[in-house]
Amino acid sequence: QAQLVESGGGLVQAGGSLRLSCAASGRAFSTYSMGWFRQAPGKEREFVAGISWIGGSTKYADSVKGRFTISRDNAKNTVYLQMNSLKPEDTAIYYCAIKVAENAYGYWGQGTQVTVSS
């Protein structure tokens, strides 16, 4: 059973940066594509970024393109989300997950809160 633990969230002013980490255990992490999602109050969870199992392919939501960068270190079983030029609308709980099938993610972490003040 895989376990994912997110960290790195916090309170930051608009224009600032944060780097989120997602540490994985209990599974062959390096063989799975991974994703970051977020959920703001009163809104549905949305896809933010994804990365292939060898890290050669990435995908981003239009709202974060050019500002966020997803990466992974398979030796450390960790996926990162570098977030730059943060905006108040980026405020949400951020989750990482494993891509278990086409268009399906599972093994969600507990999430980490990101708050961007204006």
Radius of gyration: 13 Å
**What is the helix fraction of residues, given as a range?**
under 10%
* Coarse structural class: mainly beta
Termini gap: 40 Å
Overall average residue pLDDT: 93
Strand content: over 45%
Number of helices: 0
Multimer state: single chain
How many strand units?
11
- Largest sheet at a glance? 7 strands, mixed
Question: What is the 3D form?
Answer: globular
State the order of secondary-structure elements, H for helix, E for strand: EEEEEEEEEEE
Question: Can you give a write-up of this model?
Answer:
The chain is mainly beta. Helices cover 0% and strands 53% of the residues. The chain has strands at residues 3-7, 10-13, 18-25, 34-39, 46-51, 58-60, 68-73, 78-83, 92-101, 104-106, 112-117. Strands 2, 4, 5, 6, 9, 10 and 11 form a seven-stranded mixed β-sheet that branches. It has a four-stranded antiparallel β-sheet with strand order 1-3-8-7, with no helix packed on it. It is globular, with a radius of gyration of 13 Å.
